[in-house]
Amino acid sequence: MKLPELCPLAKGDAALLRRETAGLVGQHRFGAFVKKAATDGYLRCNEESKRSVAHARHSRSRKLRLFDFIHVSVIFSTAVRLCGLTSVGAQGRSVRSSLPLLTLAAALSLLFVFAQTHSAASNGSERQVLFRDIIGASGIDFVHDNAATPEKYMIETMGSGCGWIDYDADGWLDLYLVNSAATRLYKPKSTLRSALYRNNGDGTWTDVTEKARVGAEGLFGMGIAVGDYDNDGFADLMVLGYDRSILYHNNRDGTLSDVTAHAGVANQGKWASSGAWFDYDNDGDLDLAIANYVAWSPDNNIWCGDQKPGYRGYCHPNKFAGQKPTLYRNNGDGTFCDVSESSKVGIKASSGLGIVTFDFDSDGWQDIFIANDANPNFLFQNNRDGTFREVAYPVGVAVSDNGKAEAGMGTDAADATGSGGLDVFVTHLDFEHARLYRKLRDGSYEDATFAAKLGYATFKYSGFGTCFFDYDNDGARDIFMANGHILDNIELYHAETRYAEPKLVYRNTGKGLFENVSDLLGSDLQRPRVSRGAAPADFDNDGDLDVLVSNNGQVPELLQNEGGNRNHWLQLQLIGTRSNRDAVGARVKVVSENWAAFDQRKGGRSYQSAHDPRLHFGLGPRTKIDLIEIQWPSGLVETVKNLAADQAATVKEGSGVVTAAYPRWSVKPR
User: Fold this and answer.
1) Going edge to edge, which strands form the sheet with 478-483?
2) Which helix (H) or strand (E) holds 165?
3) SS3 letters across 571-606
4) How far apart, in whole angstroms, are the C-alpha atoms of residue 44 and residue 669?
């Protein structure tokens, strides 16, 4: 009798199947049987099996993954081979046939499928999440202008950022998109401006830039930082840019005012990339740290790349002198003083792009991490006396595990392993790897990129905006990467590399091990774009994290999460009283039964972007929080007990949970 035709797996797929099934030997009765199928490297030759191979690379549950990958037809075909049944292949070769053995093969197949489906059922069904770009129906008509010219000014390719700011304090996160400006060579037909869009709460946004007076006209913008620096309950906006920056103070009436000169935070003469509001001296007022890039100008712009038509490219940052980071101390009266030198944050020049502030050593004082491009990263440890000490090398986050300084772009910090310590993630250019620095018990870090299974897919992409975020609310923080090359003519140099690139999402399978699920989360993530900024937020207040992405010279993307809230969740809005009102620096522990999660209210994050100010915790199947412990920057330790899941709770320092409702979208765009 003729049975299903068999075909060999590709070498990589066979190896993948062997790895994925190795852990099942001993766990399942037929684990060894399946592993033998992988070792033989054969699958049934049909399109369904091929799709199963592709899906198995990223399926989101180990027990379901095997069932999806093997498929009934695959198991049956393998059983045929192992039992010695007749099979006519592509070359017409055949082996012995036996009806009793055929029956045995079918029985083994059915028993295995039953074991897998039973196991899967006992652990909950697969929960699919999709990200859908709703920018087309949103009313947002912004297009970034990169001011590109044949002279390849560096500022053309490095921007720009985006972010979230509830400027009118109505419970809906509004969004801000940064734009460029005219240059010596580029003269647009109309004045370029950045843009503020108000969230209408129904799936649409309204351009309120002119009314709010935040267009930043004339500024070649890069990034933004959002923080309530005067503790009045309304978020203020810092727009970072080339040669200068702008601080907008919130007037609490739907408008903001440019107070840069009065506040003293122009950062004049510096190329600011990313900024972070944080309270480095724990005096209750937000200070400002800025990652500055290099001392490029139109006057020192040189030819980089091959000397032939079409091959001129944007220069490597090492062609120019680096710039020192900036630290502004809040005086508490609406003004700031530049303490870059006295604090020792600004004593060494480099090429800073991304920044995140967090308490890496758990002493209650926030530290500063800066991702540097083609130079060792900075980690400034807070000495608790107004000064910092740069410790990136001894701590283990300066370079990769092979001792190489890489093209640091975006960065974030979060607890990816459940240990309580915050790990650090940094994106890089292609032909390098995005790096995960894992926090160790002794307070140092190790490069865990390959141990965490993060290295391979990131090698061929240029990553910029990035964040830890629990997109499926399963209780483990995943990773988002927005990608796009620096060179618009990169294909002339690397035929397989593209200027526009898809995004990457890595799902945390537990304890800091990741799998690439990018092609399982919807086609909108796969569209090639020249992405720069990336900012997660629950902009529709439905309990799962969405992502705003800014694209260089292109339309932004508003990626709405559909399905992440099938698992339970908790959001915490922290309000400081003795501490700074934004509670930046607060350390939070959430406990439910025998599970615990940790996070901090951080400053900065990603690349040139500002995030949702609420702390987001995915809870998986848990419906109640037993305990929340908050260590405020002031030193107060506060606990909240017996809180229901699936809510955005507001906790005020010293007062516990207070009433604060977050509205839900009435209509979602299609």
Assistant:
1) 463-469, 478-483, 504-510, 513-516
2) strand 162-165
3) EEEEECCCCCCCCCCCEEEEEECCEEEEEECCEECE
4) 42
How far, in Å, CA of 23 to CA of 171, rounded? 47
CA–CA distance from 51 to each of 7, 72, 81, 645 (Å)? 14, 13, 22, 37
**pLDDT tens-digit readout, 162-200:** 999 999 999 999 999 999 999 999 999 999 999 999 999
Question: How big is the chain by its Cα radius of gyration, in Å?
Answer: 26
Question: Which pLDDT belongs to residue 112?
Answer: 44
Residue length of the chain: 670
Alpha-carbon gap, residue 100 to 81, rounded angstroms: 14
pLDDT digits (tens, 9 = 90+) for 364-388: 999 999 999 999 999 999 999 999 9
Confidence (pLDDT) at 664 = 77
Contacts of 468 (CB under 8 A, 6+ apart): 412, 413, 414, 416, 425, 477, 478, 479
Cα separation, 418 vs 316, in Å, equals: 38
Residue (of 476, 437, 507) closest to 597 by Cα position: 476
Cis peptide before 160 (omega within 30 of 0): yes
User: What are the counts of helices (DSSP H) followed by strands (DSSP E) for the chain?
Assistant: 10, 40
Assigned token pair, 317: 């940052």
> Is residue 502 within 8 Å of residue 157, measured between CB atoms?
no
Is the whole model's pTM more than 0.85, yes or no?
no
The residue type found at 405 is A
Cα 504 to Cα 518: distance, rounded to the nearest angstrom: 5
Per-residue pLDDT of 18-73, as tens digits, reads 443 443 333 333 333 333 344 444 343 333 343 344 444 433 333 333 333 444 44
> Measured between alpha carbons, how far is residue 529 from residues 130, 141, 367, 502, 553 in Å?
18, 17, 33, 6, 10
